[in-house]
Amino acid sequence: MIPFELAEPASLAEALALLDPDDPAVRPISGGTALMLMMKSGFYRPRRLVSLRALGAGLATIAATPAGGLDIGAMVRLADIERSPVVRSNFPVIAETLLTHSNVRVRNVATIGGNLAHADPHMDLPPVLIALGASVRAAGPAGERTIPLAALATGYMTTALGNDEVIAALDVPPQTGRRAAYAKITARTADDWPALGVAVSVGPGDVRIAVGAATEIAMRLPQTEALLAGRRLDDALLREAGKCAAAEAPVVGDLNCSAAYKRVLIEVHLRRALRKALAA
Asked: Does 1 score more than 70 pLDDT?
């Protein structure tokens, strides 16, 4: 790796002041599990990294909101979310998804803010959080703004965040009356990168569907959602929904699976995810 400056600010305001909106070689670092691999491979060569590790407890808490939602600080480790009683009780699909998210060594270091800001499409959490209607609070020089998870990733490893912004927290709204499920399909072990991730959230009169890994970014499938809205979710309709989703998703192939095969995976595993949610 080439030499770089490591800044360790003691406050969020100080961290933001060290970022440069015009220099992509200056960026924040939290857990660093993905960023360090990019640096070792030469894919990313920073001039300055701004560590967020000493910013205090405000960014490292998990709390239920008064309305029944979830507020997670950006510096909370994935392993802490996985083990959180609040998450396990009120948002079990998140805890279950994290059980096979990478491996335990990574989950003990990686943070939720860094995970989402990395914007690799081969991630488990984005489709789940999109289906749950989650958003992030981004902090920058002008203050905080809210970005829906569905709008955070704008392309391969690119986000709507400015170079002088960081994710401060993840907000998940209450899921009263809703049931959610996630289906992960890998080419090798259960904790491998997914070849396809399908998340669904079934509520009274509507269904949210989000896919990842098979597409360039995690995204909802509005045409398939409209097909299911207000209808009885029987086997015939689930089969129709699988075919609709496979046709709607802008699938891209990779070294593990062709685009054609991933469409088959979507058709099959959307049905399975919906059945799992309905049985919850």
From this structure: no
pTM: 0.94
* Residue 84 structure tokens: 């959180």
Nearest to 224 by CA among 204, 254, 199: 199
- Pick one of 3.10.180.10, 3.90.180.10, 3.30.465.10, 1.20.200.10 as the CATH number of 59-138+148-158: 3.30.465.10
Cβ within 8 Å of residue 210, ≥6 positions away: 126, 127, 128, 130, 131, 150, 198, 199, 200, 218, 219, 220, 221
Using a pLDDT cut of 70, give the percent of the chain over it. Answer: 99
Q: Domain locations in the chain? A: 59-138+148-158, 179-279
Per DSSP, 57 falls in state G
- Report phi then psi at 242, rounded to 5: -60, -45
Cβ atoms within 10 Å of 39's Cβ, excluding its own: 18
φ, ψ (nearest 5 deg) of residue 4: -150, 160
Task: Write down how long the chain is.
Answer: 280
At 64, give phi and psi (nearest 5°): -80, 140
Query: Is 179-279 CATH 3.40.50.300?
Result: no
10, 55 contact by CB (below 8 A)? yes
* DSSP code, position 210: E
